[in-house]
Amino acid sequence: MSRARVHLFDTTLRDGAQTAGVDFTLHDKIVVARLLDRLGVDYVEGGYPGANPTDTEFFAEKRTERARFTAFGMTKRAGRSADNDPGLRGVLAAEADACCFVAKTWDFHVTHALGVSLDENLRQIRETVRAAVAAGREAMIDCEHFFDGFKANPAYALACAHAAYEAGARWVVLCDTNGGTLPHEVTEIVAEAAHAVPGDHLGIHAHDDMGLAVANSLAAVLAGVRQIQGTLNGLGERCGNANLTTLIPTLKLKPDLAERFEIGVTDAGLASLTQLSRAFDELLNRPSNRYAPYVGANAFATKAGIHASAILKDPRTYEHVDPAAVGNRRRLLVSDQGGKSNLLAELARIGVEADKADPRLDALLAEVKAREAQGYSYEGAEASFALLAKRALGRVPDFFAVESFRVMVERRHNSLGERVTASEAVAKVRVDGDTLMSAAEGIGPVNALDLALRKDLGRYQPYIADLKLTDYKVRILNGGTEAVTRVLIESTDADGESWTTVGVSPNIIDASFQALVDSMVYKLLKAGAPAEGQPS
């Protein structure tokens, strides 16, 4: 039996940016686009070129290799031709494979919000789609408030959808914009929409205001749509959008769905889902939802007792899928029976070979647990975890030793009488028995410490010449004046490889220092630098 292809359309970089407290930088967008591309989604919608400098610069070049890079925009304005609409032309000028335009499909919005006639709105939809197709872009229309519009005026909502399809839209996406539609209503309305637009050209865009975005998306697929729009970890305005982190494993692992539908995410991509979900939260500097389906730290956690006993005898008793399939692990909260096997799996994933009989693994596992209790998190800091593991296995040579460091922050008036804050740092390191001391000024204490630390590493200097710190995030793990701080630092080099390291301490400078040192050691190890005392 052939399976129907369901296309995944990720809107994290636009809809996700509507989340309270989320603000993507250009660097964040580039990193997230790469993560999504590797995961295997079909479309990555990057934002609205022309609406703000970040999105405009993001679309200066194509940011995906596999997924179709998609620009978002509005249908053309009334009273202007497609060639004379700056917003539309800005979207079509973007370096994108596809363009997704939002259109009004609720008659009330057309007459009251847009202030145009119903027929004029249909013309705007058609002309926008035709302009995108003529520009060589794959065109799609997001039918805003489609389900509310259908309930108010079914004929007009369907006319809008058909107008988009007739004009050449590859996808006509039915949007539950306020998240107020129930699954049975989605099923019924999608069935009606399929009379106006073939199902293999229909998509679903669900919001989670009733906690039903995933259910509504699945109901739509079962009713005939073949594109699902959603976001990583369910980000989005108000209560969020359909959570692709939940939808992807459901589509792949639930037999009734997997036998009928296929998606572009491979088994390997699925196995990276937990790590990707948590790394994404680290990038946003926000705690992961421990209770999230499939990927949460507690998704497969059980307290000791009758449930734990049953799981040990047959995991299927309380686990609806294998945790390893999504890159997660079982946790028995009193006695973690699977710790060593999970450690071995993680070592294999990052390319560290280890014999399961090696007694040093027990010490490594104990250290990882102790560090996690202190606040370390290695989900988004694989370089630090790789160093920790390799040190435990005796595979990290001594390169240099830090004898001491000092950071000074001074607020003063400059020669113009302006009040400024200056940061200075001094680092003392020992290389091949020689003590080297360097000082530097920076725009902040961490920048000054970074500059001082790698200003002079003796014979190791050439190996770190191309090392750059590209991102820095701080999270306070508990409140009060004695709060523990976790710092994540992302670095890169001329090879284009990037890696992330972590440090934890009650002192933010000390935590930053730990992450900086790990970054430098990882770079030296990566570059094949000789150990202390060995010839260059």
From TrEMBL:
It holds the Pfam family HMGL-like. Signal peptide: none annotated. Residues 6-271 form the Pyruvate carboxyltransferase domain. GO terms for molecular function: (R)-citramalate synthase activity; 2-isopropylmalate synthase activity. Pathway: Amino-acid biosynthesis; L-isoleucine biosynthesis; 2-oxobutanoate from pyruvate: step 1/3. CDD domains: DRE_TIM_LeuA3. InterPro entries: 2-isopropylmalate_synth_dimer, AIPM/Hcit_synth_CS, Aldolase_TIM, Citramal_synthase, LeuA/HCS_post-cat, LeuA_allosteric_dom_sf, PYR_CT. Its EC number is 2.3.3.21. It comes from the Bacteria. SUPFAM superfamilies: 2-isopropylmalate synthase LeuA, allosteric (dimerisation) domain, Aldolase. Keywords: Amino-acid biosynthesis, Branched-chain amino acid biosynthesis, Isoleucine biosynthesis, Transferase. The keyword Amino-acid biosynthesis applies. GO terms for biological process: isoleucine biosynthetic process; L-leucine biosynthetic process. It catalyses: pyruvate + acetyl-CoA + H2O = (3R)-citramalate + CoA + H(+). It is an enzyme of class 2 (transferase). Belongs to the alpha-IPM synthase/homocitrate synthase family. PANTHER family: (R)-CITRAMALATE SYNTHASE, ALPHA-IPM SYNTHASE/HOMOCITRATE SYNTHASE. This is Citramalate synthase. It comes from Methylopila jiangsuensis.
